[in-house]
Amino acid sequence: MAADTPAPTDTEPLIQVEKFNYAYGDNQVLFDVDLNMRSEDVTALIGPSGCGKSTLLRSINRINDLVETARVVSGKIKIDGIDLYAPDVDVINLRRNVGMVFQKYNPFPRSIFENAVYGLRVAGIKDRHDLEEAAERSLRSAALWDEVKDRLHEVATGLSGGQQQRLCIARAIALQPRILLMDEPCAALDPIATARIEELIHQLRGQYTFVIVTHNMEQAKRIADRTAFFYKGRLIEEDDTMNIFHHPREQQTEAYITGRLA
Amino acid sequence: MNSTPTNDNPFAGDSSGIQQRETAARWGLRVGSYIVVLITVAIMLHIFVKGAPVVFRSQWPFVNTQFLTELPATLHVIEDQQGNHIETDVNGADAVKKKLGDHFRAEKTISYSGGGILGPIVGTALLVIVSVGVALFLGVACAIYLSEYAKHGKFLEMVRLAILNLAGVPSVVFGLFGLGAFVLTAPRFVGVPAERSVFAIPLGFTTISFEGWDTCVLSGGFTLAFVILPVIITASEQCLQAVPQGFRETSMALGATRWQTIRYSVLPFATPGILTSSILGIARAAGETAPIMFTAALAFKDKLPWQKDLPPLPADASIFAHWEQSVSRFLGIFTESVQALPYHIYTLAAKIPQNEYAERAQYGSVFVFLVLVASLAASSVLLRKRLRAKYRW
Ligand SMILES: Nc1ncnc2c1ncn2[C@@H]1O[C@H](COP(=O)(O)OP(=O)(O)O)[C@@H](O)[C@H]1O
Ligand SMILES: [Mg+2]
Fold first, then answer.
1. Which residue from B248, B253, B265 is facing A95, i.e. has the nearest CB?
2. B168 with B97, same domain?
3. From A63, which residue of chain B is nearest by alpha-carbon distance?
4. Same domain for B110 and B124?
5. How far apart are CA B137 and CA B142, in angstroms?
6. Residue B332 counted as domain residue
7. C-beta of residue A13 within 8 angstroms of C-beta of residue A36
8. Which of A1, A15, A195, B84 has the most CB atoms around its CB within 10 Å?
């Protein structure tokens, strides 16, 4: 399990968030966030709603650029030491390397196959054989292949919720990104579907660097190596998951995990 | 209602009048709705009763084909001594008179009321094709820009307001605008600019001259396009906004550009609605009279737009010359002025002396017009259903 592998502390972090301040218009929502995430870890972001978890996550693939008022006030996010907000960064390239899975499973109302290869198609890959291979590979990785292999050309919105979310994961990993960002990936799923997603994350850890926002503290305990607790836009504490849940250093962290913080 | 306080039923109504007002409100609304339904039915019935007999026949092929396949013509009505009326066209009149000989009593001519209405049908179809083509292209482009690219703010609000105002402009104003802009000043390629040319840019091999397109399908179609643009822009924007934001985010998160996102993950899902609105635009464009009065429509024309006396090509003409002639013949369709259904109805109803024959032609035209519009509306509903079934979320 994640929790009982002692985390090596000497590897260079893959994602570095440095003094990151972020705002929507005049409303600043992240304050001086400093956080390092290593490539072999599953990192969970926890905290009460509105504390800025999604904002931070969505800044890592710059999907928040779509929000008109959103802006970086100061600070940096780096991947492999490269500042993501530097002018020479191509967001398209960045997003191909940093996949994202959203809270509400939202496959396109197209076929399962077309969903799986969407990223490849927009990247300009046309060869039918390549696309089919990639679809099978990513659907297998997402533990969905056996369930859908006979109906690849049926519309994806006919799948169950859990299957749809796994399809969204397959679609993200079809591009073979290094990082997978997940924003409450199980929030809309029932416990059984949730368990399958968690199992999937276990299988895939090591292949991808996971950053997962979750409201469910049990889930954070089950899947995360490191956990970061946010409150009101600030990173309060970040540590091995076990330490966060059993020996929190900060009083606010303890209050939150014991359910005393709204 | 029992108003005595001694009533021991705690749920009994009181006499405060709330229920009376409730009943009055319900009946008021109900009567209003009934009036609307009644008048709608009355209009439809009126047109059906007066128009259907013109278009349909009780014998095979059950349709008055002449009415749908001939151009409008002057109707000659010849009356004999017994008071019988014989209807004929200008060519038939003499023959009928000769045959009647002494039995001939009187002859009446009624303009535009004989023959059929093929000319107006064709003209309206061409105007609709041009206007909807232009309006869809401009309108959808504008809607995509407003909804997907433009930043929110004062400027965007102003653009929206301008579009809304455009919808409120009386259509005769569009007609005058079209006259000034398209008929008299729009640019065209010419060898030698006409004297009335506002401005000419010589390019060597040809000249761009701002001398207008004359009254023709193109001028009328562009004018009508601006009449229906607000409808198409507003409806298209609503359809684009109705596509879940999640589709855009997901698509971009998978490395799609903005245009790819629009192309693959927004437009396909907005298309059913856009098409529906554009079909409503068709009905509007087909029905407008004022915008085409000065820009495209004629009260009478004895030729279809493609019936032109082009000199025959010389026997040794190259394939290229034939090809060129076909193309120019085709394009020539759009530079002809035409008759149009609404204008034809207006002419029949307001420009000629009224009698039973003129009235018959009016209602026949109105009936055909309504059938066309109704079938367009029906096809839009069907189309939307099919597309919805294909792209559902
Ligand atoms: N698109 C947006 N526009 C303006 N403010 C936003 C937007 N998204 C989030 N916010 C604000 O940013 C703050 C953090 O939100 P979010 O990152 O979604 O928190 P969390 O995911 O932790 O619930 C909240 O106060 C929220 O109101
Ligand atoms: Mg959130």
1. B253
2. no
3. B253
4. no
5. 9
6. no
7. yes
8. A15
Question: Cis omega (within 30 of 0) on the bond before B61?
Answer: yes
> Looking at residues B2-23, what average pLDDT do you find?
74
- Residues B71 and B197 reside in one and the same domain: no
Model confidence over A124-165: pLDDT tens digits?
Answer: 999 999 999 999 999 999 999 999 999 999 999 999 999 999
| Residue A201 CA, distance from chain mean position | 11
User: Domain containing B153 — which CATH number?
Assistant: 1.10.3720.10
pLDDT at B376 over 50: yes
Q: Which of B247, B256, B392 sits opposite A106 (nearest CB)?
A: B247
Q: Is residue A52 lining ligand 1, measured as CB closer than 6 Å?
A: yes
Nearest atom (ligand 1) to Cα of A213: 21
Give the pLDDT mean for B289-314: 81
Rounded Cα distance, B393 and B372, in Å: 33
Which domain covers residue B87, as residue numbers?
65-115
Task: State the Cα–Cα distance between residues B159 and B48, nearest whole angstrom.
Answer: 43
In a domain, A245, yes or no: yes
Q: Is residue B261 part of a domain?
A: yes
CA distances from B295 to A97, B53, B117, B119 (A): 57, 33, 20, 17
Asked if residue A262 is part of any domain, the answer here is no
B218-238 residue pLDDT tens: 999 999 999 999 999 999 999
Min CA distance, B143 vs chain A (Å)? 18
A55 touches chain B (CB under 8 A): no
Residue B370 lies in a domain: yes
Domain co-membership, B194 together with B259: yes
- B242 — contact with chain A (CB < 8 Å)? no
Residue type, A21: N
Final residue in a domain of this structure, among B115, B130, B149:
B115
pLDDT reading at B164 higher than 60? yes
- On whether residue B42 sits in a domain, the answer given is no
- Of A125-139, A211-225, B289-303, B304-318, the one with minimum mean pLDDT is B304-318
Inter-chain residue contact B152 with A68, CB threshold 8 Å: yes
From the CA of A49, the nearest ligand is 1
Do residues A197 and A180 touch, judged by C-beta distance below 8 A?
no
Can you give the CATH number for the domain in which A134 is found?
3.40.50.300
Take atom 20 of ligand 1 and give the residue whose Cα is closest: A50
Range of the domain at A164: 2-257
Q: Tell me how many domains chain B contains.
A: 2
**Beta partners for residue A45, in sequence order:** A213, A228
For the question of an ipTM over 0.95, the answer is: no
Where is mean pLDDT largest: B61-75, B165-179, B287-301, B350-364?
B165-179
What is the Å distance from ligand 2's center to A47 Cα?
Answer: 10
Shortest alpha-carbon distance between residue B248 and chain A (Å):
9
Q: Is A204 helix (H, G, I), strand (E, B) or coil?
A: helix
Domain assignment present for A168? yes
Low-confidence ranges of chain A (pLDDT < 70): 1-11, 262
Nearest Cα to Cα of residue A250 among A222, A225, A231: A231
Q: Which residue has the higher pLDDT, B62 or A214?
A: A214
Q: Which pLDDT tens digit goes with each residue over B110-161?
A: 888 877 788 889 889 999 999 999 999 999 999 999 999 988 888 888 988 9
Domain count, chain A: 1
Q: Are residues B96 and B189 in the same domain?
A: no
Contact criterion met (CB below 8 Å) for A63 and B249: yes
Do B179 and B88 lie in one domain? The reply is no
